[in-house]
Amino acid sequence: MEIQNLISELNYKAVRSSGAGGQNVNKVSSKVVLSFDLKKSKALTEEEKLLLEANLSSRLTTDSILILNCDEDRSQLRNKEIVTKRFLELIKKGLTVQKPRKETKLPKSAIRKRIKNKKNVSQVKKNRRKPDLD
């Protein structure tokens, strides 16, 4: 994966930001929406595409398009930088393969403690019974 090729495939769109900001919000399109088509990407290999599709499945549309937006700053350029940085971090995170979890064995002391506790509870319940007078 080459970062420059990946960045060249990004589509940016500037839209009007919502929320507070007075008259500036009504005039300036400072919010940046980034879209990235995962299936049509030439910068990623097929294995990387499959891995990203699996890891980022909740963030992708049905057409495998990743959409991110940013309206943190009043500057369109700054928002573009922020959303690009976020995109690259997301891709790097999505491409990492998690190590398989090794199951650990229960320590013998934990087993002994559990059995001892069960015996104590059993004894407490025995002591609650009515005495057998025969």
Automatic annotation (TrEMBL):
Coiled coil: none annotated. GO terms for biological process: rescue of stalled ribosome. PANTHER family: PEPTIDYL-TRNA HYDROLASE ARFB. Residues 101-134 are annotated as: Disordered. This is Ribosome-associated protein. PROSITE patterns: RF_PROK_I. SUPFAM superfamilies: Release factor. Residues 16-32 form the Prokaryotic-type class I peptide chain release factors domain. Belongs to the prokaryotic/mitochondrial release factor family. Residues 110-134 have a biased composition (Basic residues). It comes from the Bacteria. Transmembrane segments: none annotated. InterPro entries: Pep_chain_release_fac_I, Pep_chain_release_fac_I_sf. GO terms for molecular function: peptidyl-tRNA hydrolase activity; ribosome binding; translation release factor activity.
